[in-house]
Amino acid sequence: MSAITTHVLDLSIGRPASGVPVRLEVLQSDSGWVSLAEKATDDDGRVRDLLDAGARLDAATYRLTFLTGNYFQNQDKASFYPEVTVVFRVPEPGGHYHVPLLLSPFGYSTYRGS
């Protein structure tokens, strides 16, 4: 399993949000944000493989960007947020960090999952 995972739940329909593009980046002091992966949520609304299994996770600041506008546009729904960006810190390498996104066309929430 990847050291960083996510899932997206569409609260407006009470189901996982499949097909949401997700980008993972790390902040590096010398070059700013550096892209690590780009994936889309699966049928269960999850991205389980943002990083290769066994890849070392450094203590750093990371950013997940969810292209929510594309998701709602594909459903012919109006939405307010074209993307959602979640910036978080990994204080200790070697752990697992799960960052869920609860989504609706006009709001969102996130938390550190397990």
Q: Specify the helix fraction band.
A: under 10%
Mean pLDDT: 94
Strand content: over 45%
Between the first and last Cα atoms, what is the distance in angstroms?
13 Å
- The CATH class label is Mainly Beta
What is the CATH third-level topology name? Immunoglobulin-like
> What is the CATH homologous superfamily assignment?
Transthyretin/hydroxyisourate hydrolase domain
Query: What structural class do helix, strand and pairing data support?
Result: mainly beta
Overall body shape = globular
- Report the CATH architecture: Sandwich
Biggest beta-sheet profile: 6 strands, mixed
- Number of E strands: 10
Order of helical and strand elements: EEEEEEHEEEE
Structurally, how many domains make up the residues?
Answer: 1
Total number of helical segments?
1
Low-confidence stretches: none
* Gyration radius from CA atoms, angstroms: 14 Å
Helix-strand blueprint:
Blueprint: E1 4-10, E2 15-16, E3 21-28, E4 32-40, E5 46-47, E6 60-66, H1 68-74, E7 84-90, E8 97-98, E9 101-104, E10 107-110
Parallel strand pairs: 1-8, 1-9
Antiparallel strand pairs: 1-2, 1-5, 3-4, 3-6, 6-7, 9-10
